[in-house]
From TrEMBL:
Protein name per the record: Polysaccharide biosynthesis protein C-terminal domain-containing protein
UniProt main location, coarse: membrane
Keywords: Cell membrane, Membrane, Plasmid, Transmembrane, Transmembrane helix
Claim: Repeat is one of the keywords in the record: no
Keyword Transmembrane helix: yes
Residues annotated as transmembrane: 94-117, 123-141, 153-175, 181-204, 225-247, 300-319, 331-353, 365-385, 391-412
One Gene Ontology CC term in the entry: plasma membrane
UniProt-annotated location(s): Cell membrane
Organism: Hymenobacter swuensis DY53
Membrane topology qualifier: Multi-pass membrane protein
Coiled coil: none
Amino acid sequence: MVKFALALPLRRSVWQVLPARYWVVADQATVSGTTFLTNLFVARMLGLSTFGEFSAWQMGLLLLLAAQGALITQPMQVVLATVPATNRAAYRRALLGMQGGFGVAAAGLATGAALLLRPQAGAVLVAFLVYLATAILQDTVRKLLLAEDRVPLALLTDAVSCGGQLLALLAWVAAGRSATLAAVFWVMGLTTLPALALGLPALLRDRSAGPGWTTFARQHWQQARWLLPTAALQWLSGNVLLVLAGLSTPLATLGILRLAQTIMGVFNVGLQAAENYVLPRLSLSLRRSEAEFRRQRARLTRLMLGLAAGPLLALALLADPLVRWVQSAEAAHSSVLRWCCLLYVVILLVYPLRLTVRLLPSARPYFVGYALSIGFSVLSARWLLTHYQATGVVVGWIGAQLVLGLYWSLILSRRPSFQHPHG
């Protein structure tokens, strides 16, 4: 008993040594790192063609997650700060209720799309639906925990899910068993269940009364009415060139592009942390003081650029051996990875503008920006794919980001409170 009494304050102090934002980055690193390793496992063990098929399923999941973000998690990150403490329990229940309804709709859409496009993919479809159901629910649970500053629990749930997934895949490799795409989805789905068993009860423990779900749904809709079409355009902005490449070239080409995205996905750790943790705090700081908001935004920009500079340079220099290690026959495509390094420099410069636009009273500029971005992608797609193939897709992504940055800079320049997002 004495040992327990001494250990408990020690465990608490571990979380207090570093600010919460660093634990948020650790949480995102856990999720992104597991995605990174899983993608490498599929690419190396199953080949680039199967990895291209895996990526096609993943792109569908990302589209559904984008819609979920527009309807549920992104409005939550802004609305939560306006909900009184006495109504937080009711808000959590309403949020998870909306999530349940969305999950049923998402499963129906995924089934219909899969049967239409790949009628023979029955075994893969069943496994994917299990993965889909658990992945989208865990996404909402973790983002709500992060927004409420319950970072240790969010990190624990993700560590359980990701740790279980990696252990299962490692055991697979050690046993020397042949892998299938359906089996990979089963592993990814079932290892998320213990994480949900930890996170959901903590969110539903408080049963205090509050407003009905319709009150919160109306608040969400004020944001979602622009965010939903924006989410579709945002997905298309990043994936329309991938879709066209997948339709007009072998699946291996799609696999090469997704492999480059996988390797570059390490840098999504900071970006996702900013979206999940910093945005609600930027919203609070703006409500308190515009000067505080500008200082906090400038610190975020410097931090992201400083952390990314070294790894991006190293990745550009090591592009050849990295691609050769995954699949030696595709080493000639290492230039795709170098272009991705330039892409992420542009993304980091545009990101503070993105967060600032999210805090405007209307989400219309967010929507229009992505409409212009996808317009550029569609108009340039044929020329880029014809002349530059896989590299052309990355060049198109860079151009789309520049269009976003230029438009959002113009919008914010007309609003004195939001000027100078980089300082």
